[in-house]
Each structure stands twice: as C-alpha cells, then as structure tokens.
Amino acid sequence: MKTSRYTYKMSKAEADKYVGLAISIGKPKWKMNYEMVEFGLLAPWGIMNKYEEENEYREHYIKRLERIGIGRIKNNIERIQKRYPDKEILFLCWEDLNKSFCHRRMFAEWYESKTGIKIPELESPKIKNIQLSLLSL
Question: Could you tell me the CA-to-CA distances from 77 to 23, 91, 120 in Å, in that order?
Fold first, then answer.
C-alpha cells in the first residue's frame, strides 16, 4: 500500500502495478492510468475547508477515523485487495505535499499506529528552500 496524488505522473507500466482508491471528496474527471475504486470511507467529509490549521484538521480527521474504527477500515481494504490480488493499493487524493498538509498522510500515520503497517508516499516531497544560518557558513 502507498499514498499519492491524482496528478502524480507515472508510466502505464508503473500504473499497471496499482489499483487506485479515491479517498477524496470528488475524483478526477480525466481517465487515470490505473483502475479506480471509490473509497469514500476515508474522505474528509465534514472537515474539508473547515479548519485552516493542520493540528485542528488532524484532530478532527483522526476522531473521524477512530469513530469508523480500524476493524471496519481494514475489512474494507482487504475486500478490495481480494478483488485485485495482483495490484498494490494506492490511496489517492488531490493535495501536493509540497504545498499543504493532507489527510492521506494523516490516514497513513494513523493506520501505521494501529497496525504497524507502514504506508509510504509514492512521490517524495521535494525539499523546500532551506535558509543556511550564519553559523553554518
């Protein structure tokens, strides 16, 4: 399992390895390189654009995941995995991690804390400009 954003570019050969799970409110209108399954269970219903601060957003999103429960989430993921046994699950939403925080990474961290299973990001965020201090010169 991995996370990514809809606009991450990958070759058809790479895309053939995945089944995309749309965990956003809304999904692309364009055709993706891989099969997509709607997985609204993890979408940020009721909190999208409601909280500007990452910590506040995180708090409400994690509470939502806790209400749903790890058992229900795992069962749904396993059901999809059985339908696509030769594919790796790719949890997808819109956010560019270089520009803002994202619920897909909050989910991945929460899932790891509950199961011990790490869900890495497919696309590594680019390192933002780092100012050097005068002490390091």
Answer: 12, 10, 16
Nearest 5 degrees, angle CA 27-CA 77-CA 18? Answer: 60
Name the DSSP class of 37.
E
Q: What is the pTM of this model?
A: 0.84
Helix, strand, coil % over all residues of the chain, rounded to 5: 40, 15, 50
Instruction: Give the three-state DSSP class for 130.
Output: coil
103-115 vs 54-68: helix crossing angle, rounded to 10: 50
Alpha-carbon dihedral 113, 64, 107, 21, rounded to 10 degrees: 130
Going across the sheet that includes 88-93, the strands are 2-5, 88-93, 18-22, 36-38
In order along its 137 residues, the chain shows pLDDT tens digits of: 999 999 988 888 999 999 999 999 888 888 888 889 999 999 998 777 676 777 888 999 999 999 999 999 999 999 999 999 999 999 999 888 777 778 999 999 999 999 999 999 987 655 444 333 444 44
Reading the block at residue 109, the tokens are 């961290």
